[in-house]
Each structure stands twice: as structure tokens, then as C-alpha cells.
Amino acid sequence: xxxxxxxxxxxxxxxxxxxxxxxxxxxxxxxxxxxxxxxxxxxxxxxxxxxxxxxxxxxxxxxxxxxxxxxxxxxxxx
Length: 78
Description:
By secondary structure, the chain is mainly alpha-helical. 59% of the residues lie in helices and 0% in strands. The protein has helices at 2-22, 28-52.
């Protein structure tokens, strides 16, 4: 889980810096460069989370979908 937190932290700081650079006219070109490189970082973050992440919730079994906050008997027909 440590690697997931690192990836999310890096991308969050990157987006915050991007937002700050947009506020100043002199740094607008750097912000545009950051926009061009952001898909790589976001792809890295998503890949890291999907590869390293662990699901600790209950298994769905034969059910089509499930809710973790409600029991199956408490659900009503839509």
C-alpha cells in the first residue's frame, strides 16, 4: 500500500503545482508543458494502483452486484 500512496501523492503535488503555475502569466508555458506530460503520470498512477492494490471487501459470489454497507436481505426490489 505504500507504493500506492506514493503514486497518488506525487500526482497530487504535480496537479497542485500545475494549478499554481496557471495563476502567474510568466509560468504559463511551463504549465502547458505540464499538461502535455500529465497523461504519463496519471497512467503511471492508475497502473500502480491497479497492479499493487488489494481488495479486502467481501466476495460477491453468484450475485450480479453487491453493497458493502448493506446486507443482501436489507435490499429491496427497485
